[in-house]
């Protein structure tokens, strides 16, 4: 069920993630462009966190460290979308959006599309594997993280 390297789930023409040169989340987006999932972890109290911040959400120490984690987790919540969030997605409805709790960085949860049949059964706790999707817009490349259902034995 994995996508060929040249294929992308999302159509071209959607707005690219907006990043500034000093954006706190820049390492997260740079990691996705390199097919790596980076999440912040506090070097003092070891708390994992997302979205990106300059301080730890738990102990307020400065400069959480970007740490690579495996792009696997379990569905915490999900929605089958019938009303497109952007005009370019009108022909893609329905589609599935999942909130995934990362296996290696609990309690971090990330949102993404669930690849495959939009009418597939989805359940809370279902195991999912990250799929890195690459886009090139002019001179700017960026990556996105999508999800696919895993066999329970994986």
Question: Can you describe this structure?
Answer:
The protein is mostly beta strands. It has one domain. Helix content is 5%, strand content 37%. It has a 5-stranded antiparallel sheet, covered by helices on one side. Strands 2-1-3 form a 3-stranded antiparallel sheet, covered by helices on one side. A hairpin with a 2-residue loop joins strand 7 and strand 8 (140-149). It starts with 25 loop residues before the first helix and ends in a 5-residue tail after the last strand. Residues 1-6 have low confidence and may be disordered.
Quick rundown:
The chain has 154 residues and is mainly beta. It is built from one helix and eight strands. Helix content is 5%, strand content 37%.
Q: What class, by secondary structure content?
A: mainly beta
User: Cα-atom Rg, whole angstroms?
Assistant: 16 Å
Write out the strand line-up for the largest beta sheet, numbering strands in chain order.
Answer: 6-5-4-7-8
Order of helices and strands: HEEEEEEEE
User: On the 0-100 scale, what is the average pLDDT?
Assistant: 88
Q: What is the molecular shape?
A: globular
Give the DSSP E fraction (strand runs of 2 or more residues). Answer: 35-45%
Low-confidence stretches: 1-6
- DSSP summary: helix tally: 1
Q: Number of DSSP strands? A: 8
The domain count comes to: 1
């Amino acid at each position: 069920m994995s996508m060929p390297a040249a294929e992308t789930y999302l159509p071209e023409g959607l707005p690219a993630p907006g990043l500034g040169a000093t954006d706190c989340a820049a390492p997260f987006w740079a990691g996705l462009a390199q097919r790596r999932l980076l999440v912040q972890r506090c070097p003092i109290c070891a708390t994992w966190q997302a979205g990106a911040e300059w301080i730890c959400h738990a102990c307020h120490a400065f400069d959480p460290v970007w740490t690579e984690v495996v792009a696997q987790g379990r569905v915490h919540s999900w929605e089958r979308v019938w009303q497109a969030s952007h005009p370019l997605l009108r022909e893609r409805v329905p589609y599935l959006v999942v909130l995934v709790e990362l296996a290696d960085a609990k309690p971090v949860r990330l949102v993404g599309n669930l690849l495959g049949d939009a009418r597939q059964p989805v359940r809370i706790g279902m195991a999912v594997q990250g799929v890195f999707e690459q886009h090139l817009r002019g001179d700017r490349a960026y990556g996105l993280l999508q999800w696919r259902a895993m066999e329970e034995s994986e």
